[in-house]
Write a structure and sequence with these properties.
Number of helices: 12
Strand content: 5-15%
Largest sheet: 7 strands, mixed
Number of strands: 9
Mean pLDDT: 84
Order of helices and strands: HHHHEEHEHEHEHHEHEHEEH
Structural class: alpha/beta
CATH architecture: 3-Layer(aba) Sandwich
Distance between the termini: 35 Å
Helix content: 40-55%
Length: about 300
Amino acid sequence: MTKERSNEASRRLMPRAVVRVLGRILPAGPVRVALDRIAEIPPDIHDVDDFGMDRLFVHDLAPILEFFYKHYFRVDCTGLDNLPKTGPVILVSNHGGWLPMDAIMLSYAVVRHLGQEMQPRPLLEDRFFYFPYLGTILNRYGAVRACQENAQRLLADGKIIVSFPEGEKGSTKHFRERGRIQRFGRGGVIRLAMATGAPVIPVTILGPEETYPTLGRVSLIKKTFGVAQMPISPIFPWLGPLGLAPLPSKWEIRFGSPQEIPRVTDMRRVDRVQIRQLNERLRQHIQAELTDLYEERKGVFW
């Protein structure tokens, strides 16, 4: 069997594949044991790296992600030729949607193009790791807490990382602010690129903001979930946990050309004004691409 056929087979959404994924996600207990037996899952021998990514879990999740990528969000992806064949690489993207579906779909788009061995590592804000099961699932899929130390270690290992400089401001913004990219922090991505010499590739994603249209926020659940706020949307919290399901908006992902960012050997002498200028230039580039995508789109769901 060729590599292409093998990859295609691993993406098929078959009943056994669904049961296998459920067995990987559910906590230990009788239900998981039963699902493991139905799917004929062998005893767990996991290839887990230092940051907690479980390659067996990533492989088993592929059919579900293929369904969301190809049939649910119907992703159109362009500019993949701008991706280097090997790392290290810094992908910088706009952020939208209260749950990080954009990080997962962007990572999967890269995997479809380069293979699982080039699985990107999304850098996500802390709040995602506080939720029951969600943080564990994201961690096993490859997500890492966003900080300079983690990013530098991953790049030193030749990995692809995904950065969302808008941070929480991007994922929790009001629906009326969709299409407006928030401030890119203090230039952490630019500092990272200067220090490591890794190429920076801007990525523009259209669609995540409509998957979780935030109409307001509630701040009374910190003791329960460990986070300060949760969104109010047309379907959440009115439908309970089902309200966290993403709406099937039509997505587009556009990979841009690598940005010109100089390598700096001594970061103590870095020009802060230059960092701010490069940071804002990167934000404006992605904003312009996002504006173009909004103007070209035919509708939210088609």
